[in-house]
Amino acid sequence: MGCRSLLLLLLLLAFLTPAASSPVSPSLRAPSSLPWSTSFKSRPTITLKYSIRYIQQKVDHFGFNIDRTFKQRYLIADNYWKEDGGSILFYTGNEGDIIWFCNNTGFMWDIAEEMKAMLVFAEHRYYGESLPFGADSFSDSRHLNFLTTEQALADFAKLIKYLKRTIPGARNQPVIALGGSYGGMLAAWFRMKYPHLVVGALASSAPIWQFNDLVPCDTFMKIVTTDFGRSGPNCSESIRRSWDAISRLAKKGPGLRWLSEALHLCTPLTKWQDVQHLKDWISETWVNLAMVDYPYESNFLQPLPAWPVKVVCQYFKYYNVPDTLMLQNIFQALNVYYNYSGQAKCLNVSETATSSLGVLGWSYQACTEMVMPTCSDGVDDMFEPHSWNMKEYSDDCFKQWGVRPRPSWIPTMYGGKNISSHTNIIFSNGELDPWSGGGVTKDITDTLLAIVIPNGAHHLDLRASNALDPVSVQLTRALEVKYMKQWISDFYVRLRKMN
Amino acid sequence: MGCRSLLLLLLLLAFLTPAASSPVSPSLRAPSSLPWSTSFKSRPTITLKYSIRYIQQKVDHFGFNIDRTFKQRYLIADNYWKEDGGSILFYTGNEGDIIWFCNNTGFMWDIAEEMKAMLVFAEHRYYGESLPFGADSFSDSRHLNFLTTEQALADFAKLIKYLKRTIPGARNQPVIALGGSYGGMLAAWFRMKYPHLVVGALASSAPIWQFNDLVPCDTFMKIVTTDFGRSGPNCSESIRRSWDAISRLAKKGPGLRWLSEALHLCTPLTKWQDVQHLKDWISETWVNLAMVDYPYESNFLQPLPAWPVKVVCQYFKYYNVPDTLMLQNIFQALNVYYNYSGQAKCLNVSETATSSLGVLGWSYQACTEMVMPTCSDGVDDMFEPHSWNMKEYSDDCFKQWGVRPRPSWIPTMYGGKNISSHTNIIFSNGELDPWSGGGVTKDITDTLLAIVIPNGAHHLDLRASNALDPVSVQLTRALEVKYMKQWISDFYVRLRKMN
User: Fold this and answer.
1) Cα–Cα distance, A462 to A465 (Å, whole number)
2) Is B35 within 8 Å of B25 (Cβ atoms)?
3) Separation of alpha carbons A35 and B90, rounded Å
4) DSSP three-state, residue B122
5) Interhelix angle for B390-401 vs B359-366, to 10°?
6) What are B174-229's pLDDT values in tens digits?
7) Pairing with A391, which of A145, A173, B336, B398 sits 20 to 30 Å away (CA)?
8) What are the two backbone dihedrals, phi and then psi, of residue A432, each rounded to the nearest 5 degrees?
9) To the nearest whole angstrom, how far is the Cα of B112 from the nearest Cα of chain A?
10) Cα separation, A186 vs A96, whole angstroms
11) Chain-chain contact of A154 with B194 (C-beta, under 8 angstroms)
12) Quick check: B159 contacting A, CB < 8 Å?
């Protein structure tokens, strides 16, 4: 497994949206003083009432030779919607099943009444049920040719126009785009490219600058390392040294078998390549933990304790330990992530993200437009050195999909760092989130706003309100609502002037 | 020839760019009091020094399955360019040979020194030499699939980034997009979609609202009629009555032969359909005259006198004349347009625009994105009634190209009338120009400005400065330069702040 494969895994996991959380303890204090629990309690499920609908979309908005259409799925909830002075909150769906995103974007549900809002969740083409060519959608690069951000944004545009045309009372209502992670990028880009259709955008944890040379490729892994470094003494240093321990053990006679047993792997390691795969999988776990380092117990990919990085770091207090002990510590740490519930019989190094995410689709996107370089040097970060090798990346993409990535396209299309002429976008970032390194973390103008949430992980603000939310995210959400209300109010002022 | 065929011809002719003019008389007075001359004098040719260059562009910017590239041609002139405080004026090429546009956009050459500007003229894909599939480019809808405004704008974006990357000193310079007619739309849309690449746009005679139901379809022909109505007593009324005269004559025994001889047609009429074709051709001539109704002698498609509509109207003073006399008057009027030089032996009803324009390409664009409805009723305009029939139009397109137009797409993509969130675009319009009906003729905000040039025809302001220019266009150009300088100055202020 090369550095590109690692990257793809990282990207996939990075873009997961946290599931509804299971609060255990108040978490208004700094991470180092927070309690954590090893007992997992599930949170009562909130029933979200929405209708599932479909719209016929052109497979190709940008060409006329193929006039085929497909059914795009979207969800709509209008319980709190008011025709008089209301609004439409439009979730720009990302790389997964839209019902899963809908269930995991509690913020929109929480503010619907206050905003008199109709909620719309639009599924991204090639994900969930919105497959342009059904089962053939991923069969080859010809069928995948219409999986681009531009096509996705055009779907959103057509859907909004359709809703305004067909829903009585919706015509003269302001629409706001919201999204997290890749969906946050889409929300921001949608406002940039279609400002006539949305009055503003909330782009949560959207690394719109994690492209080309806009940010150093090592920023991402440095942030992961910082998270681990501040979560326990010697933690990041221990992990930095653990890679060599794994290598040393693997090289010994029965090393692969010993490693397989020590880590309770479901499938034993049999060759040297498997060791690299193992390391990639472990790296991915640490990265993933940094992203979901929420201050309360949660049940995302796996049930997790509050501040899971801190829990993991319990096992990395000492780095001058024998290799075999180091490996046992790694096993304990991995168990926090993969076996917090105590149900797992073994650890599966092939385990990837929830099936609600579209693995194939994202892999293709990462091989075309969504090229987001990351690298590590093992000095300023705790990972093994991996340079960013565009040539190798491109060759791997060509082998896998028959396409070559165009790494400079996204900045050409969406402006790179030169986006100051746009307006009404909030970029919110979790300070702990490795993706914040590619995000907008400083105000660009007085209408292009950045919020950094102290001790926040990946798009914490989009999650459902929780009695144990830290003040930082409560304030963030209040600020977001304030700005969105201002956009809505400005819209109605303009509307009245026109009439 | 159906109403669609007429429309296509109208569109084609409408989008011609006037050639360098031949001044004859000062023209600061109202049209009705202006002198005109029947003697044609050619103007000394100005030698424009530019380099012809090529850039490799992706055939498909919005898909990765086809990775083929083609050579896009562009012209560059840097005689007056200054690295220190200079600018780049970027002509967004429209539907024809870029050298022809370059030669006919004297305004850019005239202001180059004052703006310390590098001039760039980018050829539009599928026109001139910039053919994505060479001789096969127009062979079928598969090869034509990449002829869209979005692809053209993406070419411009890539070219600007390439120039900034490769020309020493160009990196930190402001770029302004300029264009006329369809090229004017592209300039405006380019600023809307790529504001990170151009600080502003001058969109001359750009009917960005001549789409869908944004303006009534009859506006265009009404303006033509008004032009004729104010250019001579009874002029538009005579033309309105002339269509029945043609029909009556055609229905008589030897009518077709008589008509063919009376009008000195190169190819005699032989069937009833030819009569409709004849009427379409005559209509097109009047429309064309309205567009090039310049206040001085010019040599555009044909050599023309000053105020050619006024000249034509000399032959339409009386409408209560026998049909045969009416036809002789039509012949005289057509002669003004087609035989001002006195060289023509006969009139050719197949005659279309200069070969510098891409007839095939535009016909395809009009059948896909660029659907610009026009209609006439014969009451409020001087033409025979032609309703706008989208079904028929679409069927004709499907027969011709195997594609169906998407008339609502351009407003969805580019905002229709809801464009107020954009900035730094000047929309200039000639009051006489029928396309002004679909143009932006009132300021939208204090940075989205409209200029209407009294007594101006189709993008008069982009033509070379002329000693006999009316004051109106002189003032217009001065205002345009003032705004462009402001954008440039704002750019450098921002740049200094950043450094």
Assistant:
1) 9
2) yes
3) 61
4) strand
5) 130
6) 999 999 999 999 999 999 999 999 999 999 999 999 999 999 999 999 999 999 99
7) A145
8) -80, -15
9) 26
10) 14
11) no
12) no
